[in-house]
Amino acid sequence: PIHSTVIEVHESKSELPEEGWSFEEALLDKGHCYAIAAQSDEEKTILDGSEIKRLDWKELLKDAVPYPVSSASLSS
Length: 76
Known about the structure:
76 residues; 4 strands
């Protein structure tokens, strides 16, 4: 990915009713992104065998703020 971030979730929501979730979003290129939510009590890594929940990306991104990227970083 050209940009990636991990966010810890501390507030319960209907989609994530418990604490302990980490949310990773990444921009693969200027036209494709993905989002993963994972729950893990011990590790803060997404791909550690913890429970994975697939979320609706349109719902996740409805309030999203775009990354402050330059056109030069997208062309490489």
